[in-house]
Design brief:
Order of helices and strands: HHHHH
Number of strands: 0
Helix content: 55-70%
Distance between the termini: 34 Å
């Protein structure tokens, strides 16, 4: 049995969305136009949840892809014939994941 890299489709969603900086204006407007522009400037507000998601994304991207010690332990148990799979636990986890997707 070979354990391959897990799916990162959830994390890849964050790669699609990014904020692009608006290039600065090439010309300098008059002082009257500057004050009018200052009164109508666009602002961006980032929620606490967005900040936490960004921090979680960065942590996930900096983490190693595999936990080698866990892989070695499972490979050892497979080789010894002592690796047991609890099918009820697997089924329960799968159902919980599906329920979580439906709640969104």
């Amino acid at each position: 049995m070979e354990i391959n890299k897990t799916s990162t489709s959830q994390i890849d969603l964050y790669k699609r969305f990014h904020i692009e900086q608006t290039p600065s204006r090439a010309t300098t407007p008059s002082s009257q136009a500057q004050s009018a522009d200052a009164a109508h400037m666009d602002t961006v507000s980032v929620s606490d949840e967005a900040v936490l998601r960004t921090a979680a994304y960065r942590a996930a991207m900096n983490a190693p892809d595999t936990r080698q010690e866990k892989i070695d332990a499972i490979k050892g148990r497979l080789a010894n014939g002592t690796y047991q799979i609890d099918s009820r636990k697997v089924a329960s986890s799968m159902l919980n994941m599906e329920k979580a997707l439906l709640v969104r």
